Amino acid sequence: MSEFTADRLLLFGATGDLARRKLLPSLCALDADDLLPENLQIIATARSGHDDEAYRAFAKAALEEHLPNDRRAQIGRFLGRLTYQPLDATTLGGFANLAEIVGAPDHGLAIFLSTAPSLFGPTITGLEHAGLTGETVRIGLEKPLGNDLTSSCAINDAVASAFPEDRIFRIDHYLGKETVQNLLALRFANILFEPIWNSKYISHVQITVAETVGLEGRVGFYDDAGALRDMVQNHMLQLLSLVAMEPPTSFDATAVRDEKVKVLRALRPANASETVTGQYRAGAIAGAAVLGYDEELGKASSTETFVAIKAHLDNWRWKGVPFYLRTGKRLPERVTEILVRFADVPHSIFTVNGSGQSPVMRPNHLLIGIQPEENITLSLMAKVPGLDEEGLALREVPLAIAMPDAFSEAHRRIAYERLLLDLVKGDQTLFVRRDEVEAQWHWIDAIRAEWQRHGVTPKTYTAGSWGPSASIALAERDGVSWHE
Questions:
Q1: What's the mean pLDDT in 87-111?
Q2: E strands in 261-374
Q3: pTM of the predicted protein model
Q4: Mean pLDDT of the 419-436 span
Q5: CB-count burial class (<10 Å; 0-12, 13-18, 19+) for 217
Q6: Quick one: pLDDT at residue 356?
Q7: Domain covering 8-170, topology
Q8: What is the mean pLDDT of the chain?
């Protein structure tokens, strides 16, 4: 953890969609709960030619649209923290004016960079030129950080030329979600799970990130990226690493991230037969007709909007345990979840009426819901009430913990609240280290090379379905069914 708490926060891309929907509401919510440093000033910058008054009006409209009603009490106080300075990041001239507004960062400056990747290099150069990269300055980087290992390294090199690793905060907003953090608590604060968290007792793991939306105004970005780079490279591999990591020595940024990167480096290269790609066609979501990807895009494309992967970790704990990853757009429901399926009992002692036939036994499973609902469900086999004249009857029953109910006194927080607060205070635990990013890209680039080598093109699927039928076959040939 860095030694200083910043008293200034500099937001690049402050008029963008992320700022409007997430960053400003998160900061206002933190302010309403008196969690921001009392003297924290927020300097917003973007190309738009606002003055302070116009930007505060912009921020007020964003907060009234995106902040829950019960968090709005202190909007006026929060707006008083905001100042605005227009900036064209491609020219050095404007950075001197920005530095004058920010002032000397003697007491700590946190920078949040939410701009196009092409602007990262010029922005770092401008900050350095203006004297805003010193020892009391840290920087947060919003994705995408490149579209392959080479471009990611170029961005990281540019940032590293001005900031050391201990002052670089790479953001994956999934790590700010309460239930994602709860993975660590679930595994390492309960003796119940850790002794059985291995290949002897776990049959397989499923990670699903399903979206109902299509392109949503991200046409140019998404068609260049696709599902593999947009979702798997960052969010899904971070979830996988938290599920599979060894116990860290402490809840410390270095210790946690050391164990995560070991998982990522243990990923076996996936061959073409262990992946399925798809692209949605016209269909219906929640009863409403939607266009196909090619129709939304206005042209034919080979970009995948769905990907399923059977992944393997070549290490002691997980040898032989498949990790099934699945993500896609225009699927039937919006859900992010992790399913841990445990092994079958080695021998059933229960028979039906002395016939030698056993009642249906289902393996236990642990379901961790991340969005839209945050919950944890453990399925167990239990006896069905009754006199059992025809033999003992068993049925699967859930032990469910709905996190909002278990902690009803707590606000449901936006993921960026945690991350922005940690950026201001200097705690890197929930941020991604450079070697993690590069290990992720190394695995993703190998998959894309495999697709190119074998001429893999996306199979079509109807919007509102769970993707191409080949993704069902990917799991079913191992006797596994996707959780739906």
A1: 91
A2: 275-281, 283-285, 288-290, 306-311, 323-328, 335-342, 365-371
A3: 0.91
A4: 94
A5: exposed
A6: 55
A7: Rossmann fold (3.40.50)
A8: 90
| Residue among 286, 118, 144 nearest 226 (CA) | 144
Beta bridge partners, 46, equal 86
H-helix segments, 228-319: 237-244, 253-265, 293-297
How many angstroms separate the CA atoms of 394 and 374, rounded?
Answer: 28
For residue 1, name the pLDDT band (cuts at 50, 70, 90). Answer: very low
Task: Indicate if 235 belongs to the active site.
Answer: yes
The active-site residue out of 235, 312, 365, 411 is 235
pLDDT-derived band at 412 (thresholds 50, 70, 90) equals: low
Q: Does residue 415 have a pLDDT over 90? A: no
Q: List where CATH 3.40.50.720 sits in the chain.
A: 8-170
Residue 56, both tokens: 């505060």
- Token representation of residue 265: 């480096």
Domain with CATH 3.30.360.10 in the chain: 175-413+432-476
Which 3 state secondary structure label does DSSP give 396? Answer: strand
Q: Which fold has domain 175-413+432-476?
A: Dihydrodipicolinate Reductase; domain 2 (3.30.360)
pLDDT at 466 over 50: yes
Residues forming beta bridges with residue 441, ordered by sequence position: none
Output the six-digit token pair for 197. Answer: 């968290």
